[in-house]
Amino acid sequence: MVMRLSPMRKRYEAGPTVIVSPGGDEMTNVFAVNGSNRKGKGNLAKLLSPFLEGMEEAGAEVELVYSQDLDIEDCLGDFSCWSKQPGICIQKDEMQELYPMLRASDILVLGIPRYIPMPAPMQAFINRLCPLIDPFLEARDGRTVARFHKDVRIKRIVLVAVSGWWEVGNMDLLVEIVEEVAKDTGTEFSGALLRPHAYEMARPEAADVLEAARRLGRQLVSNGRMSPDDLAIVSRPLVSWEDNLKRSNLGYEETKRRTGG
Ligand SMILES: Cc1cc2nc3c(=O)[nH]c(=O)nc-3n(C[C@H](O)[C@H](O)[C@H](O)COP(=O)(O)O)c2cc1C
What we know:
Blueprint: E1 3-4, E2 29-34, H1 43-57, E3 61-66, H2 80-83, H3 95-103, E4 107-113, H4 120-127, E5 133-140, E6 143-148, E7 156-162, H5 172-185, E8 188-195, H6 207-223, H7 228-234, H8 241-259
Parallel strand pairs: 1-3, 2-3, 2-4, 4-7, 7-8
Antiparallel strand pairs: 5-6
Helix pairs in contact: 1-6, 6-7
The structure holds flavin mononucleotide.
């Protein structure tokens, strides 16, 4: 098992891969994207790392990329991957290296920090999933749905999100977006690890949050499910709302004093 914590540029072998464990079982391949512009130094990495490590502990092969490091453009929007050459993106950038890896993955982990609503490189990555989607559309449960092409193994999509403000509802928008991605690709939305007032994760009392993230990674690979109790631990309040606002505003007052603002 290899945990690749640095950008994978030029490090994959082209073509779908089936990796077999020493016991002969087919391994679960996980493709994870850390969408934080602060990459390994951000709050997202603090939460995503134990989750991915838990997946590895359960026997998964994990590939991790940082969207900020990827040399990719946003989608051109010309639908060439649907109407001219289904499954082929005409943009010859680093996404071409990721498509074979995505096709060979069982679980897609989208790590997204809450911006308005998310960092641009992560948004570009999500839009560039389009060539993996089969253009055949169906009506199901009152909406138009599609699914991944048959050669794409991805069956589950998970969201790992962090936000600055105190309330967990700040990430509803991100949950909705990733649920949409799942509906548009015919995959299961397996749930979301949501960490509000993420800066408070630096406190020693937050160790249980990171332990729960690790357990959730193991559970998802072992059983295909994540425990609601552990998801609740990941989101639990680490300080009161009042203290969170007080601390944040005190910091601002100090900055104003220092800068004469
Ligand atoms: C441009 C920008 C917009 C943000 N908007 C929100 C927001 O609407 N709600 C919120 O809770 N946090 C917001 N945040 C705070 C981030 O979610 C928080 O800083 C988080 O830790 C970022 O992830 P990172 O530490 O991995 O960089 C915003 C941050 C930035 C830079």
